[in-house]
Amino acid sequence: MNVADSEVVASILSPFYSITDSLKEAELILLNTCSVRDNAEQRIRKRLRELAALKKKNKSLLIGLLGCMAERIKEQLLEEEKSLDFIVGPDAYRSLPELIEKASLQIVSFNVALSEEETYDDIEPVRYASNGVSAFIAIMRGCNNFCSYCVVPFTRGRERSRDPKTIIAEAQSLFEKGFREVTLLGQNVNSYCWNETEKKIDFADLTEQIAQISPLLRIRYATSHPKDISDKLLFIMSKYPNICHYIHLPVQSGSNKMLKKMNRIYTREYYLERIKKIKEILPNCAISTDIIAGFCGETEQDHQDTLSMMKEVGYEYAFMFKYSVRGGTAAAEKYEDDIPEELKIKRLEEVIALQQHLSLQSNKRDIGKTVTVLIEGISKRSDQHLFGRNPQNKVCVFPKKEYKIGDYAEVKIIKCTAGTLLGETI
Ligand code: SAH
Ligand code: SF4
Predict the structure, then answer these.
(1) Which of 365, 381, 414 is the last residue of a domain?
(2) What CATH code is carried by the domain that includes residue 162?
(3) Separation of 221 CA from ligand 2 center, angstroms?
(4) Count of CB atoms within 10 A of residue 238's CB?
C-alpha cells in the first residue's frame, strides 16, 4: 500500500519535481512510513538521524514525513526530529505542494486530517519504481475492522472504495502501456463495495470486469479478510485463468481464544471451512498468511494451536511477526503485553521454522510440473537467467534463451529451494 501511495505522491509532485536516485542531488526527501509494528517506526527514526547529517551539509534540503507514522505521533515527531520540515498523513497528500511551499519559507507545518472520501481516484500514479510489468492499483483505503492489536484504522481512517470506472480505466491504460499484471490493493479488498444508482458492484464484480480487459493481463489482489472471502469470488476466479490462483488470507492465530481477543470475528473452524471451500473450487490455489506470535495472554497451547493450524492449511508462504503494542489500540488499553520478549522470539522462530518446512514441501510438490511464468526481470544471481512468478506467486528462475521481460514462458520445474522454483523453458 505504501508503494502505491508513494506513486500517487510522485504524481502530485510531478509538476514541481523530478525523481533522482542520488541523495546528494536531492532538494526534497520524502519518507513514507508505516506504523503497523514498532520496528518499522524504529527504522524511520534511524533514517531521520542519518538525513539530519545530510541536512547540515545542504541547508536548502527539505525533508518531509508521509504516511501512518505522521498520523500516529505527529507532535512527538516534530518535537523530537529537528530535521523534519513537514508531516503529511495518508489522506492529505494533495496538500503537499502547499506544505512544501511553507517549508521553503522555513515554516514547519503538518496536515494529518483523515477523510471519509479521499481515494485519489483522479490521480494517475507515476510508476517510478516499477519493472514495467507489474503494477499496484489501490482500490480502496482505510479499514473498519478494528482488530484489537492494529493501528491501521486509526492511522488510515474509515474504509472507502474507489469508483470502479477509474480503477478499470487505470488497469486498461496499464495494459496498453505494456504492463501484464495488476495487483488490486486494500487493507481488506473483499469488502470493496460501490453503489451505482441501480446496481451494487462488489469485489467479485470488479475483479471480473478487470479480468475481461485481456486474457494477457494477470490479476492479483491483497489483502483478504477471512470473514468476507465469498464463494462468488472463488467461482469468478475459477472462470478466468488470468485471475491468479493465489489468496493471501491472514489467520493471525490458530487459537479461538486468541482470535476472540484479537477481535478477528472468525473462529478456527470457520477459517478452515473457508480453506476447504477454496481448495474445492480452486484446487491449485496457493494460500499465504500473516501470523502474530506472542499476543497478550498467549499460552503454550495457543501457540501449538497456531502451529497445528499452519500444518493443517499447508501455507505456501507466511509473513510472521512478534506482537508489538501499538498505542491507542484496544489491546494496548485492555490487555497486558505479558509474553516475555525471549518467549515471543522463541515462538516466532518456531513459526518461521515450520513455515520454511511447509514452503519447501509445497515447492517440492511442483517438481516435474510445467507452470506459466510472467517474466519480471533478470535473476540477481546470474545475468544468464530470468525470473518471474507463476500464478501461485512462487518465484521461478530459468535460463534466459530468447525470452524478454514481460513475456510469458512455460517453465518445467526441475529443482527447488524453500523460496524459489528452478526450471527450464519448454
Ligand atoms: N489488512 C491486513 C493486514 C494489515 S497489517 C489484514 O487484515 O490482514 C499486516 C499485518 O501486520 C497483519 O496481518 C498482522 O499480522 C501484522 N500486525 C498488525 N499489527 C501488529 C502488531 N501490533 N504487532 C505485530 N504484528 C502486527
Ligand atoms: Fe488491521 Fe485488522 Fe484492518 Fe487488517 S483488518 S488493517 S489487521 S484492523
Answers:
(1) 365
(2) 3.30.750.210
(3) 16
(4) 14
Mean pLDDT of 41-52: 91
Strand partners, 320: 291
User: Residues 63, 14: one domain?
Assistant: yes
Assess whether the C-beta atom of 146 lies below 6 angstroms from ligand 2. Answer: yes
Question: CA-to-CA distance for 85 and 211, rounded, in angstroms?
Answer: 43
Give residue 381's domain range: 370-425
- Determine which helix (DSSP H) or strand (DSSP E) holds 120, and give its type and residue range: none
Q: What is the pLDDT of residues 362-410, one digit of tens each?
A: 999 999 999 999 999 999 999 999 999 999 999 999 999 999 999 999 9
Which atom from ligand 2 is nearest to the alpha carbon of 146?
8
* Distance of alpha carbon 74 from alpha carbon 247, whole angstroms: 35
Q: Is the CB of 37 under 6 A from ligand 1?
A: yes
Cβ of 188 below 6 Å from ligand 2? yes
Q: Both 358 and 379 in a single domain? A: no
**Mutate-to-test residue for ligand 1 from 34, 69, 321, highest number of ligand atoms within 8 A of CB:** 321
Report how far ligand 1's centroid is from the alpha carbon of 319 (Å). Answer: 9
C-alpha distance from residue 364 to each of 118, 297, 357, 413, 415 (Å):
45, 37, 11, 9, 8
Is the Cβ atom of 35 under 6 angstroms away from ligand 1?
A: no
Query: What is the DSSP code (8-state) at residue 222?
Result: E
